[in-house]
Write a structure and sequence with these properties.
The complex is a heterodimer of chains A (190) and B (372). Chain A is an alpha/beta fold. Chain A has helices spanning 3-12, 23-26, 39-48, 64-89, 149-160; strands at 17-20, 30-34, 51-60, 110-119, 126-133, 138-140, 163-165. In chain A, the strands form 2 sheets. Chain A has a 5-stranded mixed sheet with strand order 1-2-5-4-3. In chain A, strands 6-7 form a two-stranded parallel sheet. The termini of chain A are far apart. The relative contact order of chain A is 0.18. Chain B has 372 residues and is of the alpha+beta class. Chain B has a single domain, classed as Cytochrome-c3 Hydrogenase, chain B (Orthogonal Bundle). Helices cover 47% and strands 13% of the residues of chain B. In chain B, the strands form 3 sheets. In chain B, strands 1-2-3 form a 3-stranded antiparallel sheet. Chain B has a 3-stranded antiparallel sheet with strand order 6-7-8. Chain B has a two-stranded antiparallel ribbon with strand order 4-5. In chain B, a hairpin with a 2-residue loop joins β2 (29-35) and β3. In chain B, α3 (77-92) runs antiparallel to α4 (98-126) and α4 packs antiparallel against α11 (259-283). Chain B starts with 12 loop residues before the first strand and ends with a helix. The relative contact order of chain B is 0.19. The chains are: A alpha/beta (190), B alpha+beta (372). The interface between A and B is large, with 33 and 42 residues.
Chain lengths: 190, 372
Amino acid sequence: MNCAAIKQKLSAIGAAAVNETEYGRKGFALDVQVAPEQLVAAVSVLDAEGFFIEAVTGVDWLGEQAALRKEAEAKVAAEAKAKAEAAAAAGEEAPVAEPVAEQGELPEDALEAVYDFNHYESLCRVTIRTRVPRSKPEVPTISQIYPGADWHERETHDFFGIKFVGHPYLVPLLLPEDADYHPLLKDFRP
Amino acid sequence: MSAFAESEAKETFVLNLGPQHPATHGVLRVKLTMDGEYIAEAEPVLGYIHRMHEKMGENRTWAQFLPNTGRMDYLHALAYNHGYVSVVERAAGIEVPERAEYLRVITAELNRVSSHLLWFGAFILDLGGFSPLLYAFDDREHILDLLESVTGSRLTYCYFRFGGVYNDIDDNFVPGTRAFIKRLRERMPMYHNLVTKNIILMKRLQEVGPISAEMCRKYGATGPVCRGSGINFDVRKHEPYSVYPEFDFDVPVYDQCDSMARYMVRMDEIEQSLRIIEQALDKLPEGPVMAEKVPKILKPAKGDYYHAVETARGSFGVRVVSDGTNTPYRLKLRSPTFSNLSLFGEASQGMLLPDALALMGSLDLVIPEIDR
C-alpha cells in the first residue's frame, strides 16, 4: 500500500481534487475534496485498503464568501491603480477605469465535514473534506462502513448541526439530550 | 464464557451503571440492557464532564489555550501539552532546541509511567484487589515529586511552551530520576509476582473481553488497546516526532486480543519508557531550553495542520485551522479513549457484567478526555 496508489484510486471515483501535501509541514499526506455524493465511495476505497478512522469533524466557513469577494475587489482595485500609475508615468492620459461588474448576491457559505483516516502499517494520513451549504447541511453517513464513525458523527452533529443522512441514532452525544443549539457554529451566541 | 444466554421469554431489564459508580472511573454512565447476568446491549452515555475545550480554543490566543491541554487527559497531561505545542510549532515553523526536546521526552515518559501505574492500581482495584493500588501510588508519588520540581505542578501540567519548555531542570532532577528508575526496576518483579502471576487475575483476564484487530480498525482504536490485538502501531515509531528516533526502544505487542494482553502491553511499556528515559538522561545535551526568536504574538500561516502524539492511551491528534490571526479558527482534539470506548458496545455484547467491567478497566478510560 502506498500513498500514490491511494491517490489514483481516489481520483478514479471522481473526487473533485486529490492533492498531495507536504507531510512534514501539514501532518497529512493526501488532501481530498469530494462532493457529498461521492463521500461513501471514497471512504469505501480507504476501507478496502485497510485504513482506520481517526476522526470526523467540521469547520464552519461563515463569512468566507464575503472575504473572498473583498479580496477579489481589492485585487481589481490594485490592478487598476497600478495601470493608472504606469500610464501617468508614461505621460499618457489615465485609461478610463473599467466599470466594476455588478455583483449579485453572495454565494452561500459552507459547512465543511472533515474526515481523517490513517493506516496502521504505512504512514499515509488521508483527509477527506466535503462541503455543504449552511442552510441545508446534509452529508451521507459512513457509519455503515466504519461503526466507529457513529460517535464521531454524533459529536459533529452536536457541534455543527451537520445532518448525517442515514445515521441510525443521531441524538446528542456530548451535549445535553435536549440541546437544540450547535456551539461551534461561528454565529452561535450562548 | 460469553455464551449468550438464550431464554424463551426474552425478558430483559435495564441496568444503569454510573455516572456515580466506583467501577466506572469518573463520570461515565453505561445504560445496560441485561438478559439475566448477561449483557444484551450496552450504551455508554457521555457528556457529564463536557467543557467544550474546542470552543474555548477559538476564544483565546494560541498560547492561552496551553493550560487547557493539561486538563483533558489529566493522567498524561504532558503528552497533551506535547501534541498541542507540536502542531502550533509545525504551523508557525518554530525550531525547538535539542535540550528542550530531550526534556520534553524525559518528562512525558515519566508522566506515561505515572499514568500506567495509576491505571495498574485502579484496574486491580476494579477486579477486587486492594493492596496493589497502594504499592503503585507509592511509586507514582516519586514521579510526581520529580515532575513537581521541574514543572511546578503535580497533576495538570503546563510545562511545554511554543519553542521549548518553561523551565530548565535543577541539579537534583537527573540523580533523582536515575534513582527512581533503579527503584522501579527493582519493584517490577514484585508487581509481576504479586499480580501478574496471580491465578485470580489470570482467571479474570485471560480470554475475557476479546477485541479483534478488525474491530480496532473499524473503531479507530489505538494505543495499548490495538497493541493488545496484535497491531504494531505506536505513533512514536509510526510517524516519529520530537527526538524519539534517537532512542532504542521496543513496542510491546501481544496478539491474544484479551484483557490480559492489554494488561501485559502496559506493564511492558513501563519498562520501555524507563529505557527511553535512561537513554535520554545519558545523551541529554547542554544548551538553551527555549528557542530564541519566538514571536510574542503568534500568527501561524493560513491553512490546516495536524499532529499526532502517542499518549498513554493511544494516538492523540490535534487538527488546527489557522486563518492567519492570533487565535485559532478551529481546533479539533482527537482523543484516543473516545475511539477506544466506542467499541465497548459491540465488544461487551453477551458478556457477564463482571467480565465487562474487567474489559472496561482494560481500556484505561479517562473520562475528561473523552468528553473534552
